[in-house]
Each structure stands twice: as C-alpha cells, then as structure tokens.
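ok so for the tutorial part 2 we go from a plain amino acid sequence to predicted structure tokens. step 1 is just haveing the sequence, like this:
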Amino acid sequence: MRRMHLTDRRRERLTARKVERVPHITMSEDKAKRPMNVHIRSAKGRSSSSRRWLERQLNDPYVARAQREGFRSRAAYKLIEIDDRYHVLRPGMRVIDLGAAPGSWSQVTARRVGAAQGKGRVVAIDLLEMDPIPGVNFVRLDFLSPDAPERLRTMLGGPADVVLCDMAANTTGHRRTDHLRIMALVESAAEFSRDVLSPRGTLLAKVLQGGTEPSLLAELKRDFSSVRHVKPGASRADSAELYLLAVGFRQRAA
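step 2 — the prediction. this is what the tokens look like for a chain of 254 residues:
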C-alpha cells in the first residue's frame, strides 16, 4: 500500500467526518399509543445503570413499534431508514447478514428482497444461535473462518449483491479502545466482502463516531465507486454509532 502524504491524510480525515443523516420514520402513531416519560419508581433489585436502561427502553418509540410490527429489535428501523434513502436492497438480490442475531436486519432483508417468495436469497451468520426466519438460511459460523466465504457463496448460489454488518464488539467504556475494537471488525468485514461480493455490490457496516480510519477509507474508495458515512434517525441521539455505506464494488483482477 502506498504511503499517503500529510495532505492526503488530512483530506481523508475530512472526508471521513462527513456524515449524511437519514430522516427517521414518522413516529406520531407510536407517541399516541404509548405513555410518555415512564419512570421506574423502585430500584429494588436493580442497579442504577439497569434502571436507566429499562427506562430508556420503555420510553423508546422504536422499541414499542418493533414489538407491534413483529421485529426482533429496534435495529430493524435503522436498516429500513437507510434502505428507504439509498435503496440498498431490491427484489431478487442475494444478501449476507454478518452477526445477524437476534435477526431484525435479516427480517427486513428477507421482506425487501422477496426471500420467502423465492425471489431473493438471504444467508445469516452468527456465533450465537438465532430463531428461524422465513426465507432466511441461518448458519452458526465465524465469518473469519478460512472456509466461510466459499461456504456462504455456495449457500447463496453465487456471489452476494450486498453484505450487511451490524456487529459491535463488546464495549469497555474506554472510547479509544472501543473504537479500535469495532474498527477491527469493520476491517475484517471489508476484507470478507471483497471475497464474496459480485461486481457493483454493496457493503453496509457499523462504525463508531470518528468515522473510518484513513487507511481503510482509502482502500474502500479504491475498491468501491462510492463511500459515505450515514446516521439513521433510528440511532439513539446519544449513540456514537454510524454506518459505512460502500457502493459499486470494483472486483480486483485475479
């Protein structure tokens, strides 16, 4: 890899900081159907952090909506909002969902590519077990395994049109350490995508505030025609997460 000049590095950092915000789904219906500002009066048997988490869940309209609409987590709406804006998923596509459990992104993907109707194919992969989803082929597997790319291509019946990665490393509370951990996951997901994507394919992966490291960003810009950071409205206001959207994979010569 060539060594970038200082001016190049500055340019990459500035590019990495540009974030496109995705409009959130209108939640007026949810607000009318749920109590506002629920507080947990008794902290008996709960730590303060546990109580705060529960209060946040009870006051989150996306959580209530996910329960009503049958999604396994509020994360479904992050993918819905990104896809509504950028049209990542289309009927008939072949998609790999990395770190899929509990399965909300796989649920959205299966519906949008028509997997249950046999129009598209979705393969979900995770180290954890995941309950079945109509139209989704799940395998418990480490995507870093040497045989994973070939195995997943076989399950899809060919190369993937889209690789999704909503994985997050276990957090330590130390911002820099957490950033490095999730960036290691993103780098691995990017390398994996190069092995499984079809020409003009797409990678959508979670990163943390601060964006993608300049060296990885430079590699992605070489391998994809368009690279941007997006933040869906469904991401919590206090969350540091962003999503890296790389479109138009340029397959390298063998």
